[in-house]
Amino acid sequence: MTKRQIHLGLFILGTGSHVAGWRYPGAFDSFQDLASIQEIGRIAERGKFDLIFMGDNLYADPAAHPSYTLRLEPLTMLSALAVTTSRIGLGATASTTYGDPFSTARAFASLDHISNGRAAWNAVTTSNATSGANFGREHPDHSLRYEIAEEFVDVVKGLWDCWADDAIVADRASGLYIDPAKVRALDHDGKWFKVKGPLNIGRAPQGRPIVLQAGGSAPGQRLAARTADVVFSVVQDFAEAKAQYDGFKALLPAFGRSPSEVTMLPGVMPVVGRTDREAFDKLKLLQSFVSGTNALQILSDRFGTDMSAYDLDGPVPDLGENDAYHAFAKVMLAKARRENMTLRDLYNLTAAARGHWVLCGSAETVADTLQHWFENGAADGFNVMPPYFPAGLDDFVDLVVPILQERGLFRADYEGTTLRDHLGLERPERM
Amino acid sequence: MTKRQIHLGLFILGTGSHVAGWRYPGAFDSFQDLASIQEIGRIAERGKFDLIFMGDNLYADPAAHPSYTLRLEPLTMLSALAVTTSRIGLGATASTTYGDPFSTARAFASLDHISNGRAAWNAVTTSNATSGANFGREHPDHSLRYEIAEEFVDVVKGLWDCWADDAIVADRASGLYIDPAKVRALDHDGKWFKVKGPLNIGRAPQGRPIVLQAGGSAPGQRLAARTADVVFSVVQDFAEAKAQYDGFKALLPAFGRSPSEVTMLPGVMPVVGRTDREAFDKLKLLQSFVSGTNALQILSDRFGTDMSAYDLDGPVPDLGENDAYHAFAKVMLAKARRENMTLRDLYNLTAAARGHWVLCGSAETVADTLQHWFENGAADGFNVMPPYFPAGLDDFVDLVVPILQERGLFRADYEGTTLRDHLGLERPERM
């Protein structure tokens, strides 16, 4: 049996995960430019990452951080990237609240065909209420969004299975192209969706594209435990990560799934230097680029409350939970209480990685920490969120990845061709 | 002033426009295979076509012709094709009945960025009523679909203009990424759509991507005259094409547009040989592959009536018009009456090109006919619908295009880089 291996996802949101990463000397400062994305794809594939994964929002606030506002649409962008990469998985975010299951199932099946089995759907319920106004709809509340999402994901998976693998015959001699006996309608008639099917594209190379999820709430975890192949999590330290990991894996048996069936990847923003000192200098420089307005706005967005009303040098206020309150808020607040932070401390933490774990140090320090988490039940791998591109990713790929490879913790090369292969998942039989 | 030039679109629907084109020796028989599409893209670009244009349907009927049932999703497919082509325009069909304006505007703006200004949206209202069942909705009737489409197209164009060309500042020194004064919301609040905006992607390289339309009905023509840059039409002979051309161009002044602002491209299925004889032999071979079931089904779909009830060797029945009745039905019925066709004759005509004009002959014959139409007020160019791929397209590119080029009727090479350049259209100012 092969030694258990670390899995690596690369998270891309706009100009990098640090709020002011685009201001770093030499950093890419446009994410409407395909050439930048292609370069990122090449670096990630050189680093043998399992997948690239595009964040998304469905609204623009020109006063906010550019990463929240401007981007290429994920599915078109990943389709273009499918052509300039050959092995890495390609994950796009698509909403269960503002999309429809037929179009979603179809687009991801198409990406899977285009990429020869590398597509992944990051199913999100869309937390930001502003999005509704772009679709002429009231933004559903949290529990309703998850109720809808449960049905949405089932419909998409059902549509992916309408065609048998051998339904397309294409027999020139007889003229039979499709064997109708091997294609079935879905005839879904549920509370939220009525979808007849079949889908108008044949079964995907992966059988079903990979499903990613990141929900941190109880309904989000339940949805992920029932339907996801890969889960991203938001954590700030080892104890929290381990508790989340154990808690999530414990949910799986109730859905007839084994803990190894779902890959759990905590998000981490690595700031890597050749020495700890060099890494800390990079982070310091990054932090010097932060604008107070942007940082407060992200904080307000994460907490669902206007934070500009509070004293920056006073204690972090007691806000209570609300519907727009993210998983981020919970872990950041816990950390703030543990460390007696002022609001200014919290704002600096948020600015760095928008609430994700910042891991700053030499390549050895970073590799040691990742190994510790991986080997002690806190992670199956990591969702790597470089502060800026391309150097922030180059540092990780050129300095950290080789150490993990030398230690036998991470693949030296891809062994399979599909994302399922990279994740060690079987191609599913048609349901 | 340059001599007026022919414009060429390449229409792709599944395995070719002939109902049984996939059975032709050597023809591609899969359109879920990106390599086939890439090869088609390379040939079309070698032929200096203005654009490739993907047809679409939103349902699958496994008993029907494969071109109607199976395909890669157009936007993901064209995004992949954007990377392996450099000049040719990329048009995808998207529905105004089953899509939403925000997602549509965003996806086409993204394709325009990805392709450096080569995106085109073929706005369709989706005629086939079966589609509704995949979206949990009643299929709206024809006039309602066009009422919705009028507003949908306006919203999309408005979203494309939310960002000024110079709204993205990305000034590292000051930290200003976006100039909020150069971005505006749309605040559309209409009968069918409420869309706040702004779009979450900057203004497209073409300013606004090109809009294509193919509506043959009076409401379809009106929508096209008001909003389209390129119009596809369905005709069976010169007189009909000229009447349609004159009729359509006459609509433009009422919308403040000049006749040269909209490029009109009748659809044509060319079957080209080195001699007329060779071409007719190809068509005969193609027709020998037709299955009666498929041909009758397409005929029934085009006429919105089950045609299997009628005597094949009797006269074409008098059906009256109905809501599912296509522009195709009108031109085919007119031809059937003119030529005293039996239902079998009509079915053979339908099988050949699904109701489009079939132009069969030597390269000289084909070039002469296209030139005649172009120079005598029946066309600004042609929407070329090869019966099968790749040889059906190779024949046109290698045999017909050089004749048109020698005669100074068609570009020897691309002169600009965007689809607007190819069409001779200015980049529009922000409204």
From TrEMBL, chains A, B:
Q: What CDD domains has UniProt attached to this entry? A: Nitrilotriacetate_monoxgenase (cd01095)
Return the InterPro entries for the record.
Diverse_substr_monoxygenases, Luciferase-like_dom, Luciferase-like_sf, NTA_MOA
The chain positions of domain Luciferase-like read 18-378
| UniProt superkingdom | Bacteria
Q: What PANTHER family does the database record attribute to this sequence?
A: ALKANESULFONATE MONOOXYGENASE-RELATED (PTHR30011), C2H2 FINGER DOMAIN TRANSCRIPTION FACTOR (EUROFUNG)-RELATED (PTHR30011:SF16)
Family of this protein: Belongs to the NtaA/SnaA/DszA monooxygenase family.
The protein here is known as FMN-dependent oxidoreductase (Nitrilotriacetate monooxygenase family)
Protein species of origin: Kaistia geumhonensis
